[in-house]
Amino acid sequence: MTENNDIAEIRRAVQALCAEFPGEYWREKDRDRAYPGEFVDALTKAGFLAALIPEEFGGSGLKLDAAAVIMEEIQSSGCNGASAHAQMYIMNTLLRYGSSEQKAQYLPGIADGSLRLQAFGVSEPTSGTDTLSLRTVAVRDGDHYVINGQKIWTSRAEHSDLMLLLARTTPRDQAASKTEGLSIFLVDMRAALGSGLTIKPIRTMMNHSTTEVFFDDLRIPASSLIGEEGKGFRYILSGMNAERILIAAECVGDAKWFIDKATAYAKDRSVFARPIGQNQGVQFPIARCYAQMRAAELMVHHAAQVYDQGGNPGAEANMAKLLASEASWAAADMCVQTFGGFGFAEEYDVERKFREARLYTVAPISTNLILSYLAEHVLGLPRSY
Ligand SMILES: Cc1cc2nc3c(=O)[nH]c(=O)nc-3n(C[C@H](O)[C@H](O)[C@H](O)COP(=O)(O)OP(=O)(O)OC[C@H]3O[C@@H](n4cnc5c(N)ncnc54)[C@H](O)[C@@H]3O)c2cc1C
Questions:
Q1: Residue-range domains of the chain with CATH
Q2: How confident is the model at residue 203 (pLDDT cuts 50, 70, 90)?
């Protein structure tokens, strides 16, 4: 892939920043399940998290394809962009559907780091992947909406000032169509905490700062509504394409990290008086992962370019996410196998990255649901659910 100088410069700048956050930093955070605040602050200060914000609001006005490169480089440097990636992909909903007042109110603060937009409240414990069945409701009451319900897996909620929330505003049986009746809100969590919003952390197999969020008669100003009431599902789907593309770019970065580590180790580790990488049984899995990663990388950039041209690349974004998450997971498994016993030792970071990479064939959308989308919407097969 030939890249222009600007993209090459972004890669170099992200690598330089990430070099300040080596494996020991991430190991310590992982051990303590602590939020990598210093890393997120450094990304913010360098302007990377404001990449998609237009210049008039203090950002650098870059395209999604450039944002994807930033996320990829973070992962391929051994860091973990999950601590901050939502700011990139939530942004698109605000940019595409927010009013000019909302943009003027929030974007400059997000760009300069005084406001963090890191929480995305869609998933719920009972509805799971079936988003249209979600139960959190927002009921209009004069100049306010009153929110009741519960979200799960709302990552970074404890480290965010704002949350993009999807809630039902029209009961399902009264909505004009199956996909109408849901709305998106930009909730100011600073005002909400202790006044109807409660956050409970969930400890997971990797350090991900994820939580459960409870809404109990939370009153938010009606001006928090993004776009038109009842159209939230459509807006969220468009935002989810950006999310899938950026997560896919992270997976490509992870795959590159695993492939680089495995290659270097296979050259260096000598058993039976020769480098293990001289054995084709060790070489071939690394080579296969490389080919898989490159194919995924092409699809990620293709999807990002379609998005940047103003399209809604549902098929491309889903395929990018599918291919990249499978490539990173295959590379993670290959890397552990190449390292043998040392793959399990904390000090090599392989086991930590292995745990972190496992997430992406499940979230933000699982492989089955992507296959189902392709089967139905691209191939025209009968709808299965
Ligand atoms: C660490 C972590 C962080 C997350 N962060 C966020 C976040 O910030 N915000 C947010 O909103 N959500 C977040 N999520 C939620 C994530 O998006 C969901 O976990 C994911 O979409 C899967 O949904 P589910 O867990 O409800 O699985 P379920 O819907 O219960 O599905 C379970 C399994 O069944 C399969 N399945 C279900 N229905 C079908 C079907 N019809 N056909 C075939 N297979 C099917 C699925 O593929 C899956 O493998 C996070 C999750 C995790 C684990």
A1: 5-116 (1.10.540.10), 119-230 (2.40.110.10), 234-378 (1.20.140.10)
A2: very high
pLDDT in tens, 72-130: 999 999 999 999 999 888 888 999 899 999 999 999 999 999 999 999 999 999 999 99
Place 1 in a pLDDT band, splitting at 50, 70 and 90. Answer: low
| Atom number in ligand 1 closest to CA 121 | 11
Q: What predicted TM-score, i.e. pTM, was given to this entire model?
A: 0.97
Residue nearest to atom 18 of ligand 1 (CA): 363
Q: Give the distance (Å) from ligand 1 centre to CA of residue 365.
A: 6
CA 128 to ligand 1 center in whole angstroms: 6
**Secondary structure class of 124 (helix, strand, coil):** coil
**105-141 burial by CB neighbour count: b if 16+ within 10 A, else e?**
ebbbbbbbbebbbbbbbbbbeeeeeebeebebbbeee
Closest ligand 1 atom, residue 384 Cα: 41
According to the model, what pLDDT value does residue 312 have? 85
Pocket around ligand 1: residues whose beta carbon is below 6 Å from it? Answer: 120-123, 128-129, 153-155, 204, 208, 210, 359, 362-366, 368-369, 372, 385
Nearest ligand 1 atom to alpha carbon 122 = 11
The span from the CA of 183 to the CA of 278, in Å, is 57
